[in-house]
Amino acid sequence: MPKYAKRVETLPPYVFSQFQARKKELEQNGFDIIDLGIGAPDLPTPSFIIQKMIQEANKPENHRYSPYQGCSDFKEAVAEFYEVHYNVQLDPATEILALIGSKEGIANFMSAVIDTNDTVLVPNPGYPVYQSAIHLAGGTPAYLPLDSTQNFKPNFQSVSQTDLAQSKLMLLNYPNNPTAGTVELNTLMEAVTIAKEHEIIIAHDAAYQLVTFGDYKAPSIMQVHGAKEHAVEFGSLSKSFNMTGWRIGYVVGNPELIKALATLKSNIDTGQFLPIQKAAAEALRSDLSTVKDNNNLYEKRLNLAMDGLEKLGVRANRPKGTFFLWAEVPKGFTSMEFANLLLEKAGVIVTPGSAFGSLGKDYFRLSLSVSEEQLTEALNRMGGIM
Ligand SMILES: Cc1ncc(COP(=O)(O)O)c(C=O)c1O
């Protein structure tokens, strides 16, 4: 057997793949499985983005290697997006970097800023990629608990002075996966104040920034005065424009940190295909009407799911953003037992909260990225076994 690196061997198991493997097995045996574990939109990429991509793909000059930091059209579009939607000014040359999806950027950022044994404050519960990236970079996680009584705001007060003093980097993520928690700008201001006081770098993962409901508008950490001295913000077109497979995102903020990440990346990858960057620029410059249409659709599904869960006696906060519902596991089950029960007895996949950290243990995550019919059917099936 070939031996591979310990850091890979010791990566935490990816719970999602276990459920996917069991799903395949059950489907092969003729069972119809409804997957509410998916973290990606089920909707197509808007056609104006596809058209732009085709147009650009037909130009031979776009078939070459793209500039390491992203093409100027894309970076300028990101700057315009921040100006128009957040009244934030960014220099495309030094404060913006194109990414091959924000996951790539977050994982490489970890290696670019932390040294072996450096401490990283990471939300609990949180997106599992943070943990894996810290592990691969040789860092040590310390936990930033999200407060279930405060719509999953970070509970900065509960972090020990030692952890604050030792942490080099703090990860934040709003609108939040998996809890669907959202914050107002004052929470991000508080984070920047703490970062300044303790000399901590902030990486704000804003992948769901545009997936919001009603009047709620998710703030950008770049709106906080002085944020650029301490923070970067990761953005993604995956969720807002249904472009998960296209692999395009960006990071903005502190120029030194952007430069460090760009240097690391220039040794690993060579930028996203130019037509994809140019199509993404078109998306960011749009009036966001396709984003609003998506959000309206998710909101209808959300209403349906909230009603259904209430009838089942399952409690969940009504989210203002993301396409997730974070629901409480019925008494008497662990989150893993409950998720297994739903899969085996009802043919419904949900994600056990424990997959996102110790503070997820009493919850399960349900995704709204299936049709209303499937959602109704899934809730009916759940009712049948509860
Ligand atoms: C919180 C969060 N951040 C980042 C990502 C990565 O998105 P992408 O790499 O497609 O931009 C995801 C995807 O599921 C996510 O849930």
UniProtKB/TrEMBL annotation:
InterPro entries: Aminotransferase_I/II_large, LL-DAP_aminotransferase, NHTrfase_class1_PyrdxlP-BS, PyrdxlP-dep_Trfase, PyrdxlP-dep_Trfase_major, PyrdxlP-dep_Trfase_small. This is Aminotransferase. Its EC number is 2.6.1.-. Residues 32-381 form the Aminotransferase class I/classII large domain. The keyword Secreted does not apply. Keywords: Aminotransferase, Transferase. One of its GO terms (molecular function) is pyridoxal phosphate binding. It comes from Aquisalibacillus elongatus. Its cofactor is pyridoxal 5'-phosphate. It is an enzyme of class 2 (transferase). Belongs to the class-I pyridoxal-phosphate-dependent aminotransferase family. Pfam families: Aminotran_1_2. It comes from the Bacteria. The keyword Transferase applies.
